[in-house]
């Protein structure tokens, strides 16, 4: 007796095959989405860490005293620092206290969604002599404050720093993640101390 495949058996086999294929495709799509989301979160966090380290490197080299402030905020979107550096980020050792003649001015500025840095800012002309370096193009928010150097050595506090993968789009934890350091309990997220010269 010859055995044949009935129409019902064929429909069941095709249905099972379709379920297996759809399951594999769904798993692949979910895995790809998870991987893409993880990569984006990692990228934003890496940039946030880089910026925090950058602030730390330069603010700690700020020079000045209560009569000659070395950290100023020319506008709500910029932070200028007179830094005790000679070339790049090298501290000048054993300088005469309150001698700022050979110190360089550096400046951070916000330009749209860019957070930019100038390592040789010309205060006299008000321009960056060597061009602006973009630290990130994912900038969303930055809050900072500068304390009185006569009272507590001129501490710069970063109270809010936020980057988003695509800053012009709404935040989405999966497709458009945002990394934020915020003031959550009345105290600054990060505080930087300027130690190059005495601020008293």
Fraction of residues in β-strands: 25-35%
Query: Residue-averaged pLDDT, rounded?
Result: 77
The share of residues in helices is: 25-40%
Order of helices and strands: HEEEEEEEEHEEE
Main β-sheet description: 5 strands, antiparallel
DSSP strand tally: 11
Show unreliable segments.
195-200
- Principal-axis shape: rod-shaped
The DSSP helix count reads: 2
* Structural domains: how many: 1
What does this structure look like?
Strands 1-2-3-4-7 form a five-stranded antiparallel beta sheet, with helices on one face. Strands 8, 9, 10 and 11 form a four-stranded antiparallel beta sheet that branches. Strands 5-6 form a two-stranded antiparallel ribbon. The protein has one domain (34-192). The protein is 28% helix and 28% strand. A hairpin with a 2-residue loop joins strand 1 and strand 2. It has helices at residues 7-59, 149-152, and strands at 71-75, 78-83, 104-111, 114-118, 121-122, 127-128, 133-136, 139-146, 156-164, 178-182, 190-192. Residues 195-200 have low confidence and may be disordered.
Summarize the structure in short.
The protein is of the alpha+beta class and 200 residues long. 28% of the residues lie in helices and 28% in strands.
Topology of helices and strands:
Elements: H1 7-59, E1 71-75, E2 78-83, E3 104-111, E4 114-118, E5 121-122, E6 127-128, E7 133-136, E8 139-146, H2 149-152, E9 156-164, E10 178-182, E11 190-192
Antiparallel strand pairs: 1-2, 2-3, 3-4, 4-7, 5-6, 8-9, 9-10, 9-11
């Amino acid at each position: 007796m010859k055995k044949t495949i009935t129409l019902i058996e064929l429909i069941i086999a095709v249905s099972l095959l379709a379920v297996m294929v759809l399951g594999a495709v769904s798993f692949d799509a979910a895995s790809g989405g998870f991987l893409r989301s993880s990569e984006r979160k990692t990228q934003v966090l890496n940039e946030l860490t880089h910026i925090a380290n950058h602030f730390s490197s330069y603010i700690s080299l700020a020079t000045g005293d209560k009569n000659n402030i070395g950290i100023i905020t020319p506008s709500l979107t910029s932070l200028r620092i007179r830094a005790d550096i000679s070339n790049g980020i090298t501290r000048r050792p054993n300088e005469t206290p309150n001698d700022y003649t050979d110190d360089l001015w550096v400046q951070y500025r916000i330009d749209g969604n860019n957070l930019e840095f100038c390592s040789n800012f010309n205060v006299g002309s008000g321009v960056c002599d060597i061009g602006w370096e973009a630290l990130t193009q994912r900038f969303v928010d930055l809050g900072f404050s500068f304390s009185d150097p006569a009272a507590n050595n001129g501490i710069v506090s970063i109270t809010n720093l936020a980057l988003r993968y695509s800053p012009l789009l709404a935040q989405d934890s999966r497709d458009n993640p945002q990394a934020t350091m915020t003031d959550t309990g009345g105290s600054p997220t990060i505080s930087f101390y300027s130690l190059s010269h005495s601020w008293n």
